Each structure stands twice: as C-alpha cells, then as structure tokens.
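quick q for whoever's on today - can somebody do inverse folding on this one?? i tried earlier but teh output was garbage lol. tokens:
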C-alpha cells in the first residue's frame, strides 16, 4: 500500500458515488465506516462544499452500527462527522439500522439500494456479517467476533471497550444493491480478498458471496 495508491482508489470511489448522484439525484446509497473510506469521504466533502455535488434528493443508508456504544462512538456519529455534516443532505434522508425494525423494508420503500460501497474485514466480514453468516440474511443483530473487536479496538483505546453487539445489513441486503464497490486498503486484506474473489463461495468468508454479484467493482491500493 502506498499513500498515493490509497488516495487514487479513494478518489475513484468518490467519483463513482458522485457520478451516481449526478445520473440519479435521488439515489439510495449504502455507506460503510472504518478507516478505509475516510479519504473517499474527504473527497466527497470537498466536492460538495465547492458545490460540485448536490445531496438534496439522495438517501444514505449506513451499512451497520454498534448497539452498545456511546453515541460519539457509533457509526451514525462517524458518518455525521466525516461526511454528512459536509453535505446538503437533510438528516431525515440519513438512515441507520439501529432505528428501524424493518430496515430492508425502508430500503425497499425508497426504491432499493442503487450503489453500495463496502469494505472488508481481515476475517472476510462485510459490514458486520461475520464468518458463518448465511447468504439469505437481511438486516439483523450480531455478536461481534473477537478478531473484529480487536481490529476495531484502536477506535476505543482497548479491546474491552469495544462493543460486543451490532446491527448490520445482511448479505442479501448488500447483494440487492444494483451496484457494489468494494474498497480494500493495506496488505493485511490481500489474502482474504484473494480468497473471497477466487476461492469457493462460503459462509466462512462472507466477502466470497460478492462473487454472485453482477456489478461489482473492486478497488485495492496494493
Ligand atoms: C468494520 C465495519 C465494516 C468495515 C470493516 C473494515 O468493522 N463494520 O463495514 O468495512 O470493518 O474496516 P477498516 O476499513 O477499518 O479496515
């Protein structure tokens, strides 16, 4: 991974989102959190502030969130801080799975996901669909694995402060998106991503389900 390459894939991801919003201003976007999308959100924030992008009709759907975190450590807060506050999107167009009994129903009512950006965890998780998750899963609550909590511990100081429970779009929810963009940054993602894209489709590597999607773009910085 080089910083230059990371900026390049982040710009490309941001361009895909920007093009989506220009082609269909009322698009429904599925948006990830984590370290990987930060530069993409910085590009989108800059373009919106220089009035090159208009979010007024777009709907944003967080992929997942913690259930037992303090508000400032939720993904809702992350998206607010890193993206939403820099856009002209109204807060009632920003959806989070914590607040809906039927998130998939809400997504369907809005017309379905047009473009969803996802990251990949070092154990192959997509959103918070951990190894073992079935293909036909919709938005549901999960108990996070030790490895995922470890990977996210830098946001909390130590692993014992990392939440244990989360809510996530299911695999079927993610695969229902018309377009999917997977972004992966850093050598530590290389092996699991290679297995996901070229190995068998298996619940043990949830990212492998992405092989079943007809419109997947993969962007990596190595
Ligand atoms: C997190 C999120 C995922 C994210 C992944 C990778 O736990 N639930 O949506 O894609 O892990 O995060 P990072 O980009 O920090 O490596």
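ok took a stab at it. sequence:
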């Amino acid at each position: 991974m080089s910083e230059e390459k990371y900026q390049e894939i982040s710009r490309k991801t941001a361009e895909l989102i920007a093009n989506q919003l220009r082609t269909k201003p009322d698009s429904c976007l599925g948006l990830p959190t984590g370290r990987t999308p930060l530069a993409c959100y910085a590009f989108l924030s800059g373009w919106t502030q220089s009035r090159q992008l208009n979010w007024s009709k777009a709907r944003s759907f967080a992929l997942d969130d913690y259930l037992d975190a303090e508000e400032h450590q939720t993904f809702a807060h992350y998206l607010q801080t890193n993206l939403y506050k820099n856009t002209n999107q109204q807060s009632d167009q920003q959806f989070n799975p914590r607040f809906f009994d039927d998130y998939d129903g809400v997504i369907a009512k809005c017309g379905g996901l047009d473009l969803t950006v996802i990251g990949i965890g070092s154990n192959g998780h997509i959103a918070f669909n951990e190894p073992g998750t079935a293909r036909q899963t919709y938005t549901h609550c999960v108990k996070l694995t030790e490895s995922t909590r470890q990977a996210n511990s830098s946001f909390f100081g130590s692993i014992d402060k990392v939440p244990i429970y989360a809510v996530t779009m299911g695999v079927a929810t993610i695969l229902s998106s018309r377009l999917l963009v997977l972004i992966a940054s850093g050598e530590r993602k290389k092996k699991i991503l290679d297995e996901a894209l070229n190995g068998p489709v298996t619940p043990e590597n949830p990212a492998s389900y992405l092989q079943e999607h007809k419109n997947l773009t993969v962007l990596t910085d190595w």
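fwiw The beta strands are 28-31, 59-62, 64-66, 94-95, 115-118, 140-143, 165-168, 179-184, 216-220. also The first strand starts at residue 28 and ends at 31. so keep that in mind when u check it
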